[in-house]
Amino acid sequence: MRKRGKYVILSLVFLVLGFMISYSYQFTKWHSANHISNRQWTNEYQYRRMLIEQEQLNRDLQKELFEKQKKVRKIEEKFANEEQILFNLVEDVEKLRMYTGKIAVKGKGVEVTLADASYVPTEENANNYIVHESHVFKVVNELLISGASAVAINGQRLSKDSYISCNGPVITVDGNQFPAPFVITAIGNPDVLYPALNIAGGVRDQLIEDNIVVKMAKKDEIVLDPIIHSEQNA
């Protein structure tokens, strides 16, 4: 009986000791797991906060970038407008120089040749069969009205101050005398200038009616030198 009692007591001691060991192990495990969990949560919280702050910073930077891009576009538009204005001014200056004969010009156009009649009846007045300044004026005026940007007579470039006079079979252009035939060249759209001269009852028909020999041709390239004023004309 004593031995049995002893075994019972030892069994109870071992049982309690085992329970205590098991409890201590479970408690240590739970505490360790709970400690790790709290640390992970703290780290995750910090990471999340950093991520949110970084995202906010990115949004602010992106907004600032959009504002700067908007300013850059406005500056580019301003420069583009100024460049276009400058280009237009340069283009206008070139056109004015071309119209005033300050620079040489080249382009498509037409060539009109006026020649005296090849046959003059003996009983007729010879003046009725030669080219006069009025005939030249008709051609020049029609070309200018039709959009010619530059006109020359026998290579003599015309300007706003040009004058043409007739002295028998010779025509004087800005002090320079030219005999017939008179070659009038004009730079402009040949598809406009040529039909303007050939219109029914127009310049060409009037010249032919005045016994003038008229030849006309479209030209792919006409070169007119700038006007050189002589000391007499200056």
TrEMBL record:
The lineage of its organism: Bacteria, Bacillati, Bacillota, Bacilli, Bacillales. It comes from Bacillus songklensis. Signal peptide: none annotated. Residues 51-78 form a coiled coil. Keywords: Coiled coil. It holds the Pfam family DUF881. Belongs to the UPF0749 family. It comes from the Bacteria. This is DUF881 domain-containing protein.
